[in-house]
Amino acid sequence: MQGVGVPAAVAPPTTAPRRGRRAQTRSRQQSSPAGRIGLGIAVAALLLFTLLPAYWMISTAFDKNAAFRGADLVPSGWTLDNFDKVFSDDTFGLYLRNSLLVAGVTVIAGAMVTLLAAVAVARFQFKFRTAVIVMILIVQMVPLEALVIPLFIQVRQYGALNSLLALSVVYIAFSLPFGIWMLRGFVAAIPKEIEEAAYVDGAGWWRMFFSVLLPLVAPGLVATSVFSFITAWNEFIFALTFMQDDEKYTVTVGLQKFFGQNTAEWGPIMAASTVISVPVIVFFTIAQRRISSGLTAGGVKG
Amino acid sequence: MVDTQRLSRTTRPWLLLAPALVVLGALLIWPLVRVVQLSLQDFTLSNLVSGEDNYIGFDNYTELLSSPLLWKTVLPNTVVFALVCVVGTVSLGTAVALLLNRLGPVWKWICSTAVMVAWAVPALTGTYVWVWLFDPLDGLVSHVLNALGLFDPSTTNWFTDRVSFYAIAALNVIHHGFPFVAITVLAGLVTVPSELYEAAEIDGANARKRFWSITVPILKPVFAVVTILSTIWDFKVFTQIYLMPGGSGGNDQVLNLGVWSYQQSFAQGEYGKGSAIAVLLTVLLLLITGVYLRTLFKEKEL
């Protein structure tokens, strides 16, 4: 999805004092009845606009007469038939398994690579440090759509088409720049004194890394992992190009092929879409606070 | 002892960075070089099989730049669509951030969760839902408009017409893209000292004036970043166009640069021509980013 891979050169300063709670409360009390009605209308419009697609997807998935739904805001009857249809042969389950594998490898291997690089950038002064940071920011600007042709040719030459591992490696590369940028802020926020205390206790650098830095930066790792999971789970073009055998499709490619065969069978299509989207929505909303703090963490320090 | 410590201090950051640099170099930077090489070749399916290069100089570019399809259809589709989406995303995102900033804790939580849901729905499934909502025969929108007497489903298919096709795509992209802007601008709004607003209020400035003379100047860097990122994303929208009816190349009228490049390469087997289009897209993006950055540096905002 677009928002993921959120390259964030985004750096609104977060250190400035929060707007006083008192001031906020007062400005709310001051608002006139007309102002409050306006606010209510704005909130209603916002909720309608933001939630309508997700609601329509989920309610169609459970609708008995999905195809003839028309303008009925509530399904005429509830059913699990659409999900039954999606899972009736094993292929969709296979696609789910493939996507989970790819996303799992991307998250775990990606987290290690990202963390090491983030620590290097946040904790060490070295020659070309600025150059490395600038390069990381610039590679975010490269449109992945332009890389799909050379990467396809290369992957094909290595005989790695249809390889879930090859796809994961590509996704790691895509989620790296943003992950490094975001984690850098989290690492920089850890006081250096805690590290030094570990040295005083006789720990070497790697010992300190695993027993001090790693646990402290874990919340940041969760935030970057959510992003890389979503990147891998949602990615479409590369999966479409690399995965050429039916049994190697990820969910996004599988759904696209499914859609091609069943145009206008909206019930099953929405059921499959629900299965694909709901884990991401749940994940994302749970991690919501970490994500917003992660978006700003990149610019705090370092 | 001291010497080995110094040595490890200089080599350690590079050791930590090495995996990330290898991945970025092999999967982002090298393919970028390759796509430029490929754009100078007549690279077709037979070259893909033999693996042999076939340089032809700038022929692909001459052909591309003299193609009426580029000037009359693809470039306008790409540029106008991106402009509409950027303006829509940034203004809607800002409006929502201002709204969230005025709400009490409970409604703020409800609304920001809804905004997160809009962000989290994958581009792929989100696109299917919008296509379903606008399905000419059975979709919610057609039914509502038909009931209002504004639309005759039997004579209109808005997916075949260029303008209505892109209007639906813009709705989809703005819906998916505004949450990022809203969350980022909200993070910035919190940092604006409330005294400034209070002083302006005493001076008799109304809400609109306070927004334009306080909020906008202070948050200029934040607006700059979200505008740059939205521009980059909206110029290379792929999934949302490719998955709409006719969007994958079936209808020339709705091609954009990203889809055209993909279609030339993977449907026509003309990898050289596809690469030339991809390079054009990349150059356009770099130019836009460059112009933005120059203005920013001139004004010393970054």
Automatic annotation (TrEMBL), chain A:
Residue ranges with Low complexity bias: 1-17
Region called Disordered, residue ranges: 1-32
Residues making up the signal peptide according to the UniProt record: none
Its membrane topology: Multi-pass membrane protein
Short name of one Pfam family: BPD_transp_1
Protein's cellular compartments: Cell membrane
Domain ABC transmembrane type-1: 96-287
UniProt entry tagged with the keyword 4Fe-4S: no
Keyword Ribosomal protein: no
PROSITE patterns: ABC_TM1
Keywords carried by this UniProt record: Cell membrane, Membrane, Transmembrane, Transmembrane helix, Transport
Similarity remark: Belongs to the binding-protein-dependent transport system permease family.
Gene source species: Nakamurella sp. A5-74
Listed name of the protein: Carbohydrate ABC transporter permease
Membrane-spanning segments: 37-58, 100-124, 131-153, 165-187, 208-233, 266-287
GO cellular component annotations of the record: plasma membrane
Automatic annotation (TrEMBL), chain B:
Keyword S-adenosyl-L-methionine: no
Domain ABC transmembrane type-1: from-to ranges: 75-292
Pfam assignment, any one: BPD_transp_1
Keyword Cell membrane applies: yes
Listed PROSITE patterns: ABC_TM1 (PS50928)
Family designation: Belongs to the binding-protein-dependent transport system permease family.
Stated name of the protein: Sugar ABC transporter permease
